[in-house]
Amino acid sequence: MTDPKPPSDDSDAYGPCGVDPRLLELLVCPVTRGPLVFDATRCELISNKARLAYPIRDGLPIMLESEARDLDTDPV
Which of 21, 55, 57, 67 lies 20 to 30 Å (CA to CA) from residue 14? Predict the structure, then answer.
């Protein structure tokens, strides 16, 4: 069995924050089931309806409400 080859440095298979852009198109807010806005600067997925920002760590979106930043109490 062989390991899959990682994308080369000149490949755009992974976008900012190391996350696959195709994955970002599929994700929805787990609280509202609404759309998410990708913030590449902060490596977060923003749910405007829930007022939550879900972090992206090591290329993986953390889609847990308990891990999300509350935009009303921490608007940074």
Answer: 67
